[in-house]
Specification:
By secondary structure, the chain is of the alpha/beta class. Helices cover 34% and strands 15% of the residues. The chain has a 6-stranded mixed beta sheet with strand order 2-1-3-6-4-5.
């Protein structure tokens, strides 16, 4: 088991914690993480984009001129794709972009993401993340003390409305619960900040 320092909200190391090798110490599987990220991004797509074909555009029921003898190219409708205001040829229609992911691959990808953050020294364990009132400044000061002023993912063990409300307006900061993490968010942050009780939950679920 590897040890990692536990900090308080003032950025001072208060203790150490041993991380489970089965969750935070595996060899990161790049292929599994890539597959998980591709699946996550594909599943975020709504697939509601739509264009009108020539049969759906209003108008164009009459042949614009006779077939022969005018000197114009022959045309059957003013709503054909080559006309201004005509229909769209081969344009997008509503569809599902949903992709599935095997449970074992998803677990492997998450554990690989956790382990990669530990290897990069980007994981920070905080003893307690709490605030007595809705105060953004409290959380900004915590992030500064932890050296996490860029993109940060803060993982809580359970809902705390005052903490969530205080973090909501800070640019680049995202919050998640231990049971709702995804690989994309973990890899997309510069600092992976986890509450101490959330670390125990992650080890219990993914070990």
């Amino acid at each position: 088991m590897s040890k990692i320092s536990v900090f308080d909200m003032a950025g001072k190391a208060v203790s150490e914690i041993e991380l489970s090798e089965a969750v935070f110490g595996i060899e990161p599987n790049v292929a599994a993480m890539h597959q998980a990220v591709v699946t996550y991004l594909a599943n975020q797509r709504q697939g509601t984009q739509s264009t009108l074909t020539r049969s759906e555009v209003s108008g164009g029921g009459r042949k614009p001129w006779r077939q022969k003898g005018t000197g114009h190219a022959r045309q059957g409708s003013i709503r054909a794709p080559q006309w201004t205001h005509g229909g769209i040829a081969l344009g997008p229609k509503p569809r599902s972009y949903h992709l599935g992911l095997n449970k074992k691959v998803k677990r492997l990808a998450l554990k690989s993401a956790f382990s990669s953050k530990v290897l990069e020294n980007s994981m920070i364990v905080v003893d307690k993340i709490e605030t007595a009132e809705y105060k953004t400044k409290t959380m900004v000061n915590m992030l500064k003390a932890l050296g996490a002023e860029k993109k940060a993912l803060i993982v809580l063990n359970s809902a705390d409305e005052k903490v969530l409300g205080s973090l909501r307006n800070i640019p680049g900061v995202k919050t998640a619960y231990a049971n709702t993490l995804n690989v994309y968010d973990v890899l997309n942050c510069d600092k992976f900040i986890v509450a101490k009780d959330a670390v125990a939950t992650l080890e219990e679920v993914y070990a």
